[in-house]
Amino acid sequence: MILNKQERAFEAFYDSARKNDILEPKVTLMIHLASAMALGCHP
Fold first, then answer.
1. What is the pTM of this model?
2. Average pLDDT along the chain, 43 residues, taken 10 residues at a time
3. Contacts (Cβ under 8 Å, ≥6 apart) of 10
């Protein structure tokens, strides 16, 4: 289980990557996959 401080930092990162108008959709998808895998949620 991750700590509250780490969880808030991850959520801030995830939300900034998810709600952007700069990155291409393919790059955004790669960030989502990498983030999920870093937390142990393998597809």
1. 0.52
2. 79 80 86 81 61
3. 2, 35, 39
Give the amino acid at 29: L
- The backbone region for 3, taken as left when phi is positive above 0, alpha when psi lies in -120 to 50, beta otherwise, is beta
Residue 8 CA to residue 43 CA, distance in Å, equals 23
Paired tokens of 4: 């509250």
**CA angle 42-16-1, nearest 5°?**
45
| Gap between the Cα atoms of 38 and 23, Å rounded | 20
Q: Give the distance from CA 14 to its chain's centroid.
A: 4
Residue 2, SS3?
A: coil
